[in-house]
Design goal:
six-stranded parallel sheet; alpha/beta; globular; two-stranded antiparallel ribbon; single chain; 201 residues; binds magnesium ion
């Protein structure tokens, strides 16, 4: 079967990168890692945080958002990422029986592939599908791979679950990323697990 994995929050722990970049850009922020992620996991946007807690003007928010997009996928900040423990071994084993893909909404394909190569993952995936934020994950997969109802989509966001369902796949939500159980339940995935290591296909 085909198994599609989201990248950030599913295979890779990107929480430090996002937290540290926020702290870097918002000099008045005294958030701890947990404080920042509790807000994000409650789906509170940067815009709301900046407006309500730091009294940012609309222009300051626009500047923040622009700088965020410019920096968040640079090699310098991506160095804050780490594969979740045990993921490499898990994927190598999975590849023996299944065809596995990465699907990510990252902006830059080349940089994403470099990052995966740095983890020794170049030979593991059949394809690395990067939306470049020019199309939805759904249409990217639909154009590239013939999927069926035995295939799986694994991700950490509601959008990931919607993507899998729209393609008629089974869906697994992981709690290792950017959303909590309460939020993920609303999207009715077939299964919710703490991390991908708990999945059996
Ligand atoms: Mg994700």
């Amino acid at each position: 079967m085909n198994i599609f994995f989201d990248l950030d929050g599913t295979l890779v722990d990107a929480r430090n990168r996002l937290y540290l970049l926020f702290q870097h850009l918002v000099t008045g922020s005294k958030f701890s890692f947990d404080e920042y992620w509790n807000l994000k996991r409650d789906k509170i946007s940067h815009k709301e945080i900046l407006q309500n807690q730091f009294s940012y003007s609309s222009e300051e928010i626009r500047n923040f958002e622009r700088t965020w997009l410019q920096k968040i996928e640079t090699t310098e900040w991506l160095a804050c990422d780490q594969p979740f423990p045990g993921v490499t071994e898990f994927l190598i084993k999975l590849k023996e029986e299944h065809t596995i893909f990465v699907v990510t909404a990252r902006q830059f394909e080349v940089v994403a592939k470099q990052q995966l190569a740095g983890y020794g993952w170049s030979e593991i995936f059949e394809r690395v599908l990067v939306t470049g934020q020019r199309q939805e994950k759904y249409s990217l997969i639909d154009d590239a791979v013939k999927t069926s109802d035995v295939d799986w989509f694994v991700g950490d966001t509601g959008k990931d679950i919607q993507t899998g369902k729209k393609l008629g796949m089974k869906t697994a939500a992981v709690l290792s990323g950017f959303m909590n159980r309460e939020r993920l339940v609303e999207y009715s995935p077939d299964i919710i697990v703490g991390s991908i290591l708990e999945l059996e296909f």
